[in-house]
Amino acid sequence: MPLTNVKIIPGFDKTDTPSGAEGKWIDGDFTRFRYGQPEKIGGFTAIGSHTISGPARAIHTFTDLDGRKYAGIGSSKLLLIYYGGAFYDITPLGTQVSSVTFTSTNNSNTVTVNKTAHGLVAGEYFLFTNVTLPGGGATSFTTANFTDNTFEVVTATANTFTVTMPVTETGTGMTAAGSADVTPYIDIGPIAQTAGYGWGTGQWGGSIGNQPSTTLNGLLQNNTAGTGGVGTSITLTSSSGFNSGGGIILVGALGSSSAELITYTGVSSNDLTGITRGALGTSISAHSSGTLVTEVSAFIGWGNQTTTSSVILDPGNWHLDNFGEIFTATIRNGKTFTWNAGASNPLNNRAIEMPSAPTRSILTAVSDRDRHFVHFGTETTVGDANTQDPMFIRFSDQEDFSTYAPTSTNTAGTFRLDTGNTIVTAISGKDYILILTDQAAYTMQFVGPPFTFSIRQVGTNCGCIGQHAAAYADGKVYWMGLSGGFFVYDGTVKLLPSLVEDFVFTTDGDNLGVNYNSNQIIYASHNSLYNEIIWFYPKGTPLPNGSSQNDRSAVYNYVENTWATMSLARTAYSDSVTYDNPQATEFNSTGTPTFPTINGVTNTFGASTLFAHEEGTNQISLNGVSSPIPAFVQSGDFDISQGGDGEFLLKVRRFLPDFKNLEGTVTITLGTKNFPISTQSTTTSFAVTSTTSKIDTRVRGRLANIKIENTAVDDNWRFGTFRADVQPDGMR
């Protein structure tokens, strides 16, 4: 019999049945489509020699005026610069705690730090400064043991916390002796998005509005105590409307990384009594006097467990950019910091708070063409975090990110969007910034004085799912929709046709679509080497069945208009604009970070590894060990057309392997079944190398499919065509 060319069109079809997807690829992993054919993706090599604390949430690469290349990386615990193959810690520092004392014990490396209402919690990173130690043999520790190191708080009470020293105490021991100042790292937020607060989260029968709110009258420390760091009461400016029999309050703005839920048992004058800090899975945080307090008991506590929440606290997240040589970093719903690559010895400097800027923004961006710095979802009154409006935009004067007050002689200004509940993200295009709310799309375009920017709505019902879920490529912006689907803006907003949409967005049986409760960790990026937009997302919804970190990816080739899905898990990804290869981070929840050196470090926050992608054919760890990338692609079922569609059984007597760039060994498996709903009855596998010219076989069935895969180190392949001797073989 003559050979038959079994033609299979490029891209995955995950919407149809295996038999309905005849002539298509239906599944695969670590595979892309190029020139119409499937191939194994490129390898990735760990770089930087260390792992870093927490999941990385953003990567931004840039160069200084002398051409030096940098990558800024923001994790849930740190802000780092990667330069010259090494990491540098530039994490901003928080408010100093002064005049602590030490208690130590002979033959122990544990030191207790004493300070009333210190405000630190277990897991917090900090530095010691201004250290003085007692003499007389009380301690063998030196000031260098304290001041040259970063520490993690091991345990904490209201007035003490413990640390692990780099050496053991050989002195007699200190008892509330010595002195030092403690400077904590800035609080960035939790490693995962917090949602689904136990029992009855979410209201009964619809929306509840006009909840009582007021402000704190006094400071709440970062501890379990009440106002002023003592007792079990919180003093409010007014207790009007709060439940005399107890309830629950939200301290801070909804969605803020420092927002905290606190239960109370009663009201006395303007005090909430019987408080419990950090309720329902939220984290205890410090809150200044004047911080917004909202009564949220109506949203929480109907007595039935729920997996959704009206109160969702976002993960620690960053938006990174550069204003010329100045690297900018904004904590989601927090402050903006700068790091100047052009300064003297910049790698020895930490990022500092942007002067005169808003103190709370969802994200920021640089309008490159006209050099304005823009805050989105920010304060209506600069410096007052309680005035944060999720739909409010504030932009600086041209060339000056320290001036935000509009005057007749500058170009600073403000604008408020009206369609949606919150700005989700903003991304710079060719000559515009595309702003995406949870419902609509806007363009922000420089027009010059007196209006500075023209802002117009360009789309509705196209809300974005997360802060990093949009990417720009070749004049277009692509994003993942909040309500499902993928979108593109190329002058108009369009829905992208996709045959993987159901797989990505829908939970059905064993298929766990995107976890909407972790939407803010979804990360999109451009891979210009292969004309791809990649979305990394967490599978499964709702929690606890779903993932709290990214563990799947969807890939769109915008030149060949093909889609693929993978299990490639990355928390952040940067295109090969500054460096020759894309850079991306992988998170290990049980890993222990090795940079910076942190005394007493735990693996509570996990660790991230930085990889250079599209390099070689294997995955190579930090210790240089190569592991295979197990790529595969599988077709839908095909039959024989003689006598009618599927009327006759088919027999495959031989086939001719056709590969380009075949290295190592691939396995071709022919699977058969007799009816579309039948379980695959037989599989026959064949090893193929670059010298394999023909495979003889005796595969028989009504329907057949092919699978191509590799399992070993150094395997690499790009498939060509499948030519086979396929004959009719009876009707049963």
Largest sheet features: 8 strands, mixed
User: Do you know the CATH topology of the domain at 4-42 and 630-728?
Assistant: Jelly Rolls
Number of strands: 59
Strand content: 35-45%
Taken from the alpha-carbon principal axes, the silhouette is: globular
SS summary, helix count: 2
How are the strands ordered across the major sheet?
A: 15-16-12-11-17-13-14-47
Q: What Rg, in angstroms, do the CA atoms define?
A: 29 Å
**Name of the CATH first level of the domain at 4-42 and 630-728:** Mainly Beta
Would you identify the regions where 5 or more consecutive residues have pLDDT less than 50? 196-210, 300-309
Descriptive account of the structure:
- The chain is an all-beta fold and 732 residues long.
- Among the domains are: 4-42 and 630-728, Sandwich (Jelly Rolls), CATH 2.60.120; 97-184, Beta Barrel (Elongation Factor Tu (Ef-tu), domain 3), CATH 2.40.30.20; 213-299.
- It contains 2 helices and 59 strands.
- It has an 8-stranded mixed sheet with strand order 15-16-12-11-17-13-14-47. It has a 6-stranded mixed sheet with strand order 2-3-51-57-54-55, with no helix packed on it. A 6-stranded mixed sheet has the order 45-46-48-6-49-50, with no helix packed on it.
Features:
Jelly Rolls, Elongation Factor Tu (Ef-tu), domain 3, 2 helices, six-stranded mixed sheet, mainly beta, eight-stranded mixed sheet, 732 residues
